[in-house]
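task queued by scheduler; priority normal; single chain, no ligands, no partner chains; default sampling; output format set to structure tokens
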Amino acid sequence: MSLPSSFSIFNDGFLTLEVEDINSTNSAFSVNLNSFSISSGESQEIVLSFIPQQTNSYSGNLIVQSNDIYNSEIMTPL
């Protein structure tokens, strides 16, 4: 098991950002929050946990879906 790491999502828009879902394509990776709202100029910290089932090499993508009109889905490799 590894230590959790964290990242933040910042809302630099004028309207409230509605994060509708955060999910991983690999079940070894998980987050502490899946949906929430972020007011303009604010941020939300997310904790990413890695809990492998075996000693092995793992990869996947973290997918964030929101109401952002320009980037409604962001995919980040893990």
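post-processing summary
- The beta strands are 5-10, 17-24, 29-31, 36-38, 43-50, 61-66, 73-77.
- DSSP finds no helices and seven strands in the chain.
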